[in-house]
Amino acid sequence: MQLTRKHFIALAAALVAGSALAQGYPTKPITLVVPAAAGGTTDLAGRMLAQGLSTVTGQQVVVDNKGGGNGAIAASIVKRAPADGYTLLMQYSGFHVISPHLMKQRQWELADFQPIANILSAPQIIVVRDDVPAKTLAELVAYAKAHPGKLNYASSGNGSLQHVTGAMLEQQAGIKMVHVPYKGTGPALQDLLAGQVQLTFGTAPPFMQHIAGGKLRVLAVTGNERLPSLPDVPTTAQAGYPKLTPTSWFALFAPAAVPKDIATKLAADVQKVMADPAFKQKALEQGATADYLSPPQLGDKVKADYAEWAQVIKASKIEAD
Question: 130 with 70: CB under 8 angstroms?
Answer without folding.
Answer: no
